[in-house]
Amino acid sequence: xxxxxKFGGTSLANRERLFAAARIITREVKRGSKxxxxxxxxGHTTDQLIADAIAxxxxxxxxxxxxxxATGEQLSTGLLAMAVEALGFPVVSLTGWQAGLQTxxxxxxxxxQSLTGERIRRELETGRIVLVTGFQxxxxxxxxxxxGRGGSDTTAVALAxxxxxxxxxxxxxxxxxxxKDPRIHPDAVKFDWISYEKMRRLIAGGAxxxxxxxxELAQAFGLPVEVLSSFTGNPxxxxxAESVRP
Length: 246
Ligand code: ADP
Ligand code: ASP
Ligand code: MG
Known about the structure:
- Helix content is 38%, strand content 21%.
- It has 9 helices and 12 strands.
- The protein binds adenosine-5'-diphosphate, aspartic acid and magnesium ion (MG).
- The site of aspartic acid has 11 residues, from loops.
């Protein structure tokens, strides 16, 4: 079984959370699965990087902004790899371009176009856990691109789709998708499953729990995506087609 897991910023925010994520990854490896895990930047790193860049040059080019912003995910992926190593498991971390994530050239909001997945497959074959830096790819010029805010979700769905993974899990700081933001509305109701269409309507209405393009891409691949908490062991919400609903 091949599982793609993605860990959001809060789920990697400090050393304790990094090790919690590493244990979620290695638990699946102990059960016999191969795992590819995608890391977002820790905590509010990306906001800070944007503020720092604008403080230096409010009119900085989109190309330079992307090269700079992509470093947030490189830091967290590196640390997560070290946490996995510390638990005694073989691991390799890959940037978006090492993983072969090709995008168009729209800096700041690039679309994933293809994945040359040979490197990832080769690493999985040797028994390593593969960590992929979220939110970034490489354009036809060979330049680093970023996928838009929240874009690590789309990295994970693209990897799961192109690699034909059996399962795509988005680990975050809430235990699933609710009818409204559960942090703001204590009476929010959780969905066991939600269709791609309804999920896209929820996002269009302002729910930033998933990157819109990740749902678009999951629907194109016909890939069910589970959104669940890295903090609790609660079952999450499956985003899928009506025909395969649980
Ligand atoms: P991550 O860093 O893991 O990518 P995000 O902040 O992007 O996490 O998304 C998770 C957040 O989405 C939650 O903390 C929650 O406040 C917010 N959210 C907004 N609307 C919803 C909703 N309908 N269901 C669940 N979470 C929601
Ligand atoms: N770090 C990026 C952001 O904050 C991407 C992501 O978290 O998915 O938007
Ligand atoms: Mg997010």
